[in-house]
Amino acid sequence: MLKLELDPDMQKRARKAAASIAGSFQWLFDDYSSVTIERTVLRLLGIDGATEDGTPYPNVVVDHLQQRNALLRGAAIPLANAIIYTGMSAQQIAEEIAQGNLDLTKTPVASPDKIFQVLDELSDKMLKHIAKQRETREQLLQTYGPRRIPAIYVIVATGNIYEDVIQAKAAAYEGADIIAVIRSTAQSLLDYVPYGATTEGFGGTYATQENFRIMRAALDEVSASEKRYIGLTNYASGLCMPEIAAMGAMERLDHMLNDAMYGILFRDINPKRTLLDQYFSRMINAYAGIEIQTGEDNYLTTSDAIEKAYTVTASQLLNEQFALLSGVKPEKMGLGHAFEIDPDLEDSFTYELAHALLTRELFPGYPVKYMPPTKFATGNIFKTYLMDAMFNFAGKLTHQGVQLLGMMTEAIHTPHLADRSLAIENALYIFNAIKSLDENITLVPDSFINRRANQVLKEATEFLERVEKEGLFKAMERGEFADIKRTENGGKGLNGVFRKDVEYFNPFLEKMKKELGL
Amino acid sequence: MKHNIIRPYGDKSGDGKVQLSFTLPVPPDDWGKEAAKQLLKQMGFEDIIICGIRDLHEGFTHFIAYAVTPCSVDSSKIKVKKVDTPVMEMEEVDEFIKENIRRKITVVGACIESDAHTVGIDAIMNMKGYNHRYGLERYQWFNAINLGAQVPCEELLRRAREENADAVLVSQVVTQNNIHIHNLTRLIELAETEKLRDKMLFICGGPKISHELAIELGYDAGFGPGTYANEVASYIAVTLAKKLAQKS
Fold first, then answer.
1. Alpha-carbon distance A303 to nearest alpha carbon in chain B (angstroms)
2. A199 at the B interface (CB within 8 A)?
3. Which of A54, A225, A419, B15 is the most buried (most CB within 10 A)?
4. Whole-prediction pTM
5. Best residue in B126, B150, B171, B177 to probe A by mutation, most A CBs within 10 Å?
6. pLDDT per residue over B58-79, tens digit each?
7. Is B242 annotated as catalytic?
8. How large is the ipTM?
9. This protein's superkingdom (chain A) (predicted)?
10. Which domains, and CATH codes, for chain B?
């Protein structure tokens, strides 16, 4: 077996620094909330749908409270108070507010006991539903057997959920284990989640709860006929991280792209907003048994894959520590990395193997997610197909958890039906051809691969220790991550962050923390 | 065969052989294969060989085919609109600017509107560049300001005005439903409204951008896939120098 000898002291140092960095944000997690966290609470308490002009009801209620400076205790208490006073459901109350018939700050105040009782009942009901979805998934996996290693992960991105369904089913029948529905390109910067089934998007399909439901039903159908559980992925990222996590939890999504820092660096979302939102969204994912996936591949598409390899490792370690704080178990952490080294470079594949093994061994038992070549996919589909084959070879040989298949038409168009099919054929051939190859080979002593992996680990450790000393926000301000400079109070969405009142209450945060042992 | 007639080359001069691959909503059987053949016939192909048939499920089949096209192209009738300024290496560009413009050239770049893909603008502007060709940030005589992705048109123009830019660089990677055309048109219309259009060069780039398309949309130049920073830098430097010469 290919086995690295990673310096155990270095691993300890790296994790210690990462833990200290992640741990330094307890003040943020304890004392602050955001508009999307409150909208999540409202969704989980039963508010869904949108007004005729498309404003989702959770936004209507949160905006209503914010305009009246009444959001500091959270959205749950005023809503429960109105439920007691009016006898209406949460949904009816949201609709009345939208009509201008109800002002939550003017309803008579019920006793705290009654308020907590209402919230207790409503939150229990939803948490039971989510737990049931988690059990259904576990049961199906038990019936159909465990996932392939690496799991074959493909993307659909037509913009039209019904067209996505056709392509997703076709891919699943051909052998895909996980389907990711790419979101419409600007959705990460919307401070609301669109409502209903959607048929138009750019570079992807809007993440909506109805779209989740449609795709889940389609994949359940294939799972049943193929006797193989087909996972579904979406993106809990951008300005609505926890809302999308909650929707995924309700509709039994199995994976969520849910990176702690991606939004800050690559979408210019405010650092405090992002860290706060990822904390709660990951807790929801943890509770729902959803596997999170992180976006370290982005470091390599913007920077050199050899020179900046350590930033991938450092980000993986930070993502791990932030996820632990939210109660995510290692077996649900799909930490990311990518095959992005210049193919013209001598020994590029040898380097890739070293990096792939490093991720694999630094995170044993984690469903690490391996991303395909994109940067050097130039439109020569034949060359890209070959690079994708080498990528599949590396993924299988090093037992990656999830293999996001490369498309030979990368850099040309969103994958056509046949492109995806050829990619699956490529992966199935290689996975089968080298099924037990790893059992037959070892690294020679003092191999380049071993030295390289240890070097990357060392660079990552030293980097994390520097960041620990300086502080994460300061380091980001200086462009230490991905050469992108972000300031603590810059970026989008900061005005949606607020300091909680002493009476603040979020029934889901409390219950999930307890359940997850936090 | 006359040398000015161009036909595809398989393994003999002018044999007209092409390879094709496409998907049809038909079953992977003889009936489906016949559908594929008829389609190719209608496209004018001859000697059609369907060499690969792959079941894509959900009622679709993928065909791989070889066929002979009767078409040919007259070489004397080919005209290409492309950027025709000479291309220099980074050091030469810097030297050229130093001598001919005698001040730094300011370029403001962004990937505009909904597009979140920085790969194109980064390849041209970032220090690192792409494939061992440094980006504009590395050039001594360029002041390169990369605003990144999802930059609203208004913001890009505001910065361009503020920086008194010589050129605006726009990247568009996502092209689904022709969103890139829509975005690029919007920017140029806004630039005209704000009386900026003639004050600076407007240049666009991306996988589906050609110089011809760029001109059509009202830009000064367009660069397609595989363009390196030095090509863009050369174009900007030479064009600005020409404009300066015309003025004086």
1. 7
2. no
3. A419
4. 0.88
5. B150
6. 999 999 999 999 999 999 888 8
7. no
8. 0.90
9. Bacteria
10. 5-74 (3.30.30.60), 90-247 (3.40.50.280)
